[in-house]
Design goal:
Layout (H helix, E strand, L loop, with lengths): L1 H11 L8 H14 L3 H12 L1 H4 L8 H13 L27 H13 L7 H15 L3 H12 L8 H26 L21 E6 L5 E5 L1 H27 L4 H11 L9 H8 L7 H19 L1
Antiparallel strand pairs: 1-2
Helix pairs in contact: 1-6, 2-3, 2-7, 2-12, 6-9, 6-10, 7-8, 9-10, 10-11, 12-13
Keywords: Disulfide bond, FAD, Flavoprotein, Membrane, Oxidoreductase, Signal, Transmembrane, Transmembrane helix
Organism: Aegilops tauschii subsp. strangulata
GO molecular function: flavin-dependent sulfhydryl oxidase activity; protein disulfide isomerase activity
């Protein structure tokens, strides 16, 4: 749901421009290979294949042509994650108030799930893709700035998925710490889901070496990162997919067709299920739309054209 909603925001606000299109291409490459949903992997690949048709590299279109392209893409928007993407459920991220949690929480879940799926060799390019995606396409300007400042503070390239996963987890906790104070002062938080340091001790006791409270009540934790990382891999990997399948089946009982689609979607989250060309595209993600990704997309478009002629 967060994936489909993100694309909808990008389209509605016409955020794909000459200086942002490559960052979206690189992020889509990551989704093709590592999105936890098979339907979203398939839809992201389809969007990549047709990307140049919708957004030519020069983007020198008249206002009328631009509007026509936007309508064309909007008509295909449901395909990013299939035709039956639920709206407003947010399953793991449903707030007690309509203005809390939801999309921002879902986007965090997506990013965490990507970092535990990648290989070590993809860690730096995935970091760059995530930072650029938030910087260019997240609609909250203040949030974009804060996140990009944290990205910019990283001085040493990532060499492992473990390091990237732990960095994103630590960054998320820093954001929660800041929002805790803001929401308390302004009364804007969700009373049923107050911001907290994560994971709580009850969920991962071995993640904690020790913890204490400061004079102002803030929690300070000496983390055992050797325990935190496998917890993240399990929580945003196997647990996420299995819970997704179970919860949706319960919430959509009676809708056999949708249930079948969701069962298929949750059946596999392994990157090997996606086309080999997608993996080649990801290998070039740290470049400005690398040659391998370009080659893959060209091949896919040629196949599509040959099929249309036949």
């Amino acid at each position: 749901e967060a994936t489909a909603h993100a694309l909808q925001i990008i389209l509605e606000h016409k955020m794909i421009k000459a200086d942002t299109r490559d960052s979206l291409i690189r992020f889509l490459q990551i989704l093709v290979a590592h999105h936890p949903s098979k339907r979203c992997r398939r839809g992201s690949a389809e969007l990549l294949i047709n990307f140049d048709d919708h957004w030519p590299s020069n983007l020198s279109l008249s206002s009328q042509d631009s509007s026509k392209l936007l309508e064309s893409v909007a008509a295909d928007n449901h395909k990013i994650c299939g035709k039956e993407v639920p709206r407003g459920y947010w399953i793991f991220c449903r707030g007690s108030k309509s203005e809390t949690r939801g999309f921002s929480c879902g986007l965090w879940v997506l990013l965490h799930s990507l970092t535990v799926q990648i290989g070590d060799g993809e860690s730096q390019s995935t970091f760059t893709s995530i930072c650029d995606f938030i910087h260019n396409f997240f609609i909250c300007e203040e949030c974009r700035k804060h996140f990009y400042d944290m990205c910019s503070s990283v001085s040493v390239p990532f060499k492992s998925a473990r390091d990237l996963s732990l960095w994103l987890w630590s960054t998320h906790n820093k954001v929660n710490e800041r929002l805790m104070k803001e929401e308390k002062d302004m009364g804007t938080g969700d009373p049923s889901f107050p911001k907290a340091i994560w994971p709580p001790k009850a969920l991962c006791p071995s993640c904690y070496r020790s913890s204490s409270r400061t004079s102002d009540g803030a929690l300070q934790v000496d983390w055992n990162e050797d325990e935190v990382f496998p917890f993240l891999v399990n929580y945003y990997g196997k647990t996420l997919v299995s819970s997704y399948k179970e919860t949706y089946m319960e919430s959509l009982q009676g809708r056999t067709q949708v249930g079948a689609a969701l069962a298929d979607d949750a059946s596999s989250s392994h990157a090997a299920r996606v086309p080999i060309g997608a993996a080649l595209g990801v290998a070039a993600a740290s470049c400005t739309f690398g040659a391998l990704a370009c080659f893959w997309r060209t091949q896919q478009k040629n196949r599509k054209q040959r099929k249309n002629w036949n």
